[in-house]
Amino acid sequence: MRKGMFALAAAGLLATGSMAACGGDSGDDAGNSGTSGSSIGKVGVILPDTASSQRWGSDDPKFLKAAFDAAGVQVDIQNAQGDKSQFQTIADGMISSGVKVLMIVNLDSGTGKAVLDKAKSAGVATIDYDRLTLNGGAQYYVSFDNVAVGKLQGEGLVKCLTDMKATKPVVAELNGSPTDNNATLFKEGYDSVLKPKYDSGDYVKGPDQSVPDWDNAQAGTIFEQMLTQKKDIKGVLAANDGLGNAVVSVLKKNKLNGKVPVTGQDATVQGLQNILAGDQCMTVYKAIKQEADAAADLAISLAKGEKKSVTQSIKDPESGQDVPSVLLTPKAIYKENVKDVVADGFVTKDQLCTGDFAKLCTDNGVS
Ligand code: BGC
């Protein structure tokens, strides 16, 4: 079913690409000038912050811009830098500048909904990008299968603990922001793997805490406290690479790095380096290019006043409504297949294989 969806998204993208070509506008690289005469309206995108994950500052804006540029559609991509009132100000500005479509990654569902409501009452179409705005009623939701992301993390931790021959390990969980619906879904995924292990007595449930706003510094403090209270933590389910790196730093201080497997998500340069160094057990790679392409494709159809049908949907747990969705498939990354992330063009060898990592890259087939 997911494969079918991939094909559909790809077909949609092809259609978009060829239309841009038919437009005969040679101003592909000329920024917005080549599109001002186009009948397709402008699209606004609001990203959440640049601190909780590498992706929002570099990957998403890059791939989104490329997708809109390729279709010759004007886009305004801004980042709220973790500030909810700034988020609303940006949205107000975009709406009054006449965007036809607004695509958001909310900072929480409450402020996200306020923005979506305003957009709707101004006749602007809406898309939830990556995070579902609960009770928000966006026209589409484009993301990954986030329960599957969590499952890969849980299975990854089990694999690494098994490889280390850990017996009855105490497992700590460091969850994402309680205001991010994705964090709830990730936890649902990894707990579906870990809970049976706790229940059977194979694993011992250790501390389990959420990190407000995915704040990496706070994650370090929280994990330090966890380790003080429970010195025998033998595995850490960290919900993304930023939280994972905070854990790795604390483990390093305690000379425990490499002895306690840690998970992550996002396949950031730092996360992949931690994996190559043996300090992090795994990460989850989400092909942001596919996510950006799928979202841009739907945004462009909305901007043209069309309503593309998609094959998936997600039930908004608050409103009970089915939101038409594109949910992509995540992939687990261990030391052996770090090279796949480079081969996919998400991270370059130059970014990854710096200094001491050059040899680790060679040893692990990164080319
Ligand atoms: C995203 C993750 C990201 C996290 C922190 C989640 O909603 O899905 O990719 O690591 O937010 O920004």
Give a summary of the structure in a few sentences.
The chain is an alpha/beta fold.
Unique bound compounds = beta-D-glucopyranose
Named CATH architecture of the largest domain:
3-Layer(aba) Sandwich
Terminus-to-terminus distance:
33 Å
CATH topology of the largest domain: Rossmann fold
The strand line-up of the biggest sheet is 2-1-3-4-5-11-10
- SS strand fraction: 15-25%
Which residues form runs of ≥5 with pLDDT under 50? 1-37
Number of helices: 14
CATH level-1 class of the largest domain: Alpha Beta
Question: What this model shows, in words?
Answer:
The protein has 367 residues and is of the alpha/beta class. It has two domains: 3-145 and 287-328, Rossmann fold; 146-285 and 332-356, Response regulator (Rossmann fold). The protein is built from 14 helices and twelve strands. It has helices at residues 2-22, 54-57, 59-71, 84-96, 109-121, 146-163, 181-200, 216-229, 241-253, 269-276, 288-303, 338-343, 349-352, 357-363; strands at residues 43-47, 75-79, 101-104, 125-129, 140-144, 170-175, 204-210, 233-238, 283-285, 312-315, 322-328, 331-333. The strands form three sheets. A seven-stranded mixed sheet has the order 2-1-3-4-5-11-10, with helices on both faces. It has a three-stranded parallel sheet with strand order 7-6-8, with helices on both faces. The chain has a two-stranded antiparallel sheet with strand order 9-12. Helix 4 runs parallel beside helix 5 (109-121). The two termini are 33 Å apart. Residues 1-37 have low confidence and may be disordered. Bound molecules: beta-D-glucopyranose. The site of beta-D-glucopyranose has 12 residues, from loops.
